[in-house]
Each structure stands twice: as C-alpha cells, then as structure tokens.
Design goal:
The chain has 265 residues and is mainly beta. It has a single domain, classed as Sandwich (Jelly Rolls). It is built from two helices and 19 strands. The strands form two sheets. Strands 1, 3, 4, 7, 11, 12, 13, 15, 16, 17 and 19 form an eleven-stranded antiparallel β-sheet that branches. Strands 2, 5, 6, 8, 9, 10, 14 and 18 form an eight-stranded antiparallel β-sheet that branches. The longest helix has 17 residues. It is globular, with a radius of gyration of 20 Å. It starts with a helix and ends with a strand.
C-alpha cells in the first residue's frame, strides 16, 4: 500500500509540473513589481495571431535593437500569454515608414482585457493608437460558443461634439458603451483622417518620435494618459481583466516599452 501511495503522489506531482502556468486556473495576475511584457530580446511570453496567414508570424512581428517591429500586414496581434488585472500599463510606440499603400491615418491599437476566442478583432476594450485619435476607447464586443454576448462594456462621462461623436468630458453625461467609440477629450471636430494628419490639440509626439501611452486599470476603472496628459477615462469596466494585445493593423509601428507596474497604494 505504501508503495502504491508513493507512486500516486509522484504521478500527481509530475502531472502538476507538466501543466503550463496559464492552465493552472490561478486567475489574472495583479503586478506586485514591474513585469516586462517585452524583455527587449525576443517575444517570450507573447503569442502572435494573424488573420488568413500561414507561417507569416516571423515576418510580421520581429525584434531588433531592443524594439518590437510590427510590419502591419497581415492584420492580427501579439498577445500576452497570461491575463492581468489592476495594473499600470506603459507602452512606448513610434510609427515606421511603411503604409502598405493606405491613405488614411496611421493606425494600430492596444487591446485591453481580451476574453474569448481569437479572431479579428477579439472581444476587448481597445485603446486606440491612430493619428489624431490616440487614447480613444473602443468597445469590441463578441459572443461565446452559445451565441450569448460577452459581458463587455464601460461607462464614461461624455459630451457630444458638432460631429455627433461622444468625447470624454469630466462631469459630462454618463454613457454606457457596449459597442462603439469614445473619442479622447480634445479630438478635433473637423479632423480629417488622412495620412499624417495632426489635430491642433494632439498630445501624441510628432511623426518619427516616441509616444508614451499609459493605461491605469484600477478597480474596474480605466485612465488613459498620452505623454503624461489624461485624455480619457471610463468606469464600471467589464471585464476588468484579461490578456493585453498589440495590433498589426495595416501600418508599420515600433514598440520599445511594453510593461506593467503595480498600482500605487
């Protein structure tokens, strides 16, 4: 009996050791120290997903000189292998030269709290990275295998501009988004989305320079900063946790910082 029990124990230990960390059902991680989602050397801890592409990941997402280089095509994303909650995300990005013939504004994004299956685009809250629109929030809904909508939404204080777009305004009218886009506070009403256009109040860095994007995800509330300026806020955020993604969306873009910091007490 003792020998049989010992064999069972050994088997259980071996099985537990073979289960990847993501499959242990530990739940989302709340950082207690800085977590470098990009280690500056390779894509360890990150997994690419591309639409209608085979063996193209190595060409779309590459690392050189301490930077993640995203070609922009085919479209897809690079996602964290783990889920996170209650974090301070810091991303630094800079546009590359390649536009793949597009005439619209350079476009990418950081998808937050992604849940559900991979697709283009998965259920998540997008923090927009596009010229003139850095810091917009977009609710990207989705349905589970039974056809039921995922519980994705956020609420924000808004004001409606002359262009009928809702913008974040502190003290404005509360509006709940289960889909659609919440523009950042000073998005220019007359802004024309043409290549390399720049709004008169944009806080994104000039073309060719690095922009610092911060997302503070705290207790079901999102605060978005661009180069230190708060540009958007949302509360009653659902889901409050999930994977974090960097988009490949038609334009070349570089990321040199992709890391999480613990929330300040």
């Amino acid at each position: 009996m003792k020998r049989c029990c010992l064999c069972v124990v050994i088997a259980l230990v071996a099985t537990a050791a073979a289960v990847p960390a993501d499959d242990k059902k530990d739940g989302p991680i709340a950082p207690k120290e800085t977590i470098k989602l990009f280690n500056g050397k390779d894509l360890s801890g990150l997994t690419p997903w591309l639409k209608d592409a085979k063996n193209e990941e190595a060409k779309v997402f590459t690392v050189h000189d301490g930077v993640i280089h995203v070609s922009g095509m085919p479209m897809g994303y690079l996602q964290t292998d783990k889920e996170y909650q209650d974090y301070h995300l810091v991303v630094e990005f800079k546009w590359g030269k390649e536009t793949h013939g597009a005439k619209g504004v350079r476009n990418s994004g950081v998808l937050l709290n992604k849940i559900g299956p991979d697709r283009l685009w998965p259920c998540a809250i997008e923090c927009q990275v596009a010229q003139g629109c850095v810091g917009d929030l977009i609710a990207i809904g989705g349905k589970d295998a039974d056809g039921k909508p995922f519980p994705l939404q956020f609420t924000s204080e808004t004001a409606i501009g002359a262009d009928k777009h809702p913008r974040w305004k502190k003290g404005g009218e509360p509006r709940t988004f289960k889909g659609g886009q919440q523009w950042w506070s000073l998005h220019q009403e007359s802004f024309k989305e043409v290549l390399d256009a720049r709004g008169k109040d944009d806080v994104e860095s000039p073309l060719g320079e690095w922009t610092k994007l911060e997302v503070i995800n705290a207790d079901k509330k999102l605060t978005i900063k661009v180069n230190g300026t708060v540009v958007n806020e949302a509360y009653d955020v659902s889901p409050p946790a999930g994977r974090i993604l960097l988009q490949s969306e038609g334009f070349e873009i570089l990321f040199r910082t992709f890391e999480l910091h613990p929330l300040k007490k």
